[in-house]
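Homework-ish question, so no full write-ups if that breaks the rules, but can someone show me the predicted structure for this set?
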Amino acid sequence: MPKKIIRYQNKVIINHLASHYVFGLLSKRVIARIDVLKENNPQLLQQITAWQNQLSLFDRHCEELAPLPETWQKIQHQVSNTKTKKLLNIKRATIIGFMFIALYLLWRLFSL
Amino acid sequence: MSNIAVKANNFDDAQLLEQLLVLLTLCKLDDRKAFAQLYQLMSAKLNGIAYRITRNQESANQVLIKVFIQLWRSRKEFDFNKVDPFVWLVERVRNIAQQQLRLDLANKKITRLVLNKVEIEHLYNAFGEFDPINKNTNKFTEAVAELAQKQSQALLMAYLYGYNYQEIARYFETSTTRVKSWLRSASSKLSSCLKK
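A: Not a homework solution, just the prediction itself:
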């Protein structure tokens, strides 16, 4: 097994990475690296989850703060936009598809 | 959306978990009403967490918008057999809020992280305020209480308010190397008490 992989089987390193990942103290680059690593390293993922579960107690008791009234409208708008964009893309793809078929048929017709 | 807002604080942990599981499962089935109910249930709580980190109402709302849009777009990927949905939501809010905080600091939207000495002192006792849910939680809170004061304060400054090494070091008027050493030591002491 390559050296790099063995390094991430070490319990001390796993705990250090997992805890600091959850504390929010790692650089963007290291976070991205861990996001990839944890997909293939069950021990790392388990340790991250354990830290998250334990520290989330603080968040359970965090004071609530009502968001601005327009926040929901903005979310709804964005979510609907995604749907509309998807529909538009499907329509566009269908039209282009039909155009290709028509061109192909015309080509076949004239080549006869 | 209905005017009767059912907020997360109205439920105990088990009820909230149950509610979240139902709503997220319905979201997975493209149920937009469930998505709206999920917003009603969690928006104030998640906004509170985002505000705690960004310390700006407008930025906190931006975070909330991003989280809910991300949530809707990735709804098909929900798998809560292994992960607590509350923890899953909070992690997303914390990640985006920390990015927003760094952006706001870079754009000078906020000039510095405002947290006074009294607030920091309170952090030290914060763990004692929670009702122990089970033996593991007890062990964890006890272990935090046994940490050196600066270690637990540094940990909570990072986790709760998004402070980085340099900012913690500045607060304690010490080097970043020392802060790193406090947090490394804290993480190693607490790791034996984690609930797996």
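Now go work out the reasoning yourself. Hint: Residues 130-135 of chain B have pLDDT under 50 and may be disordered.
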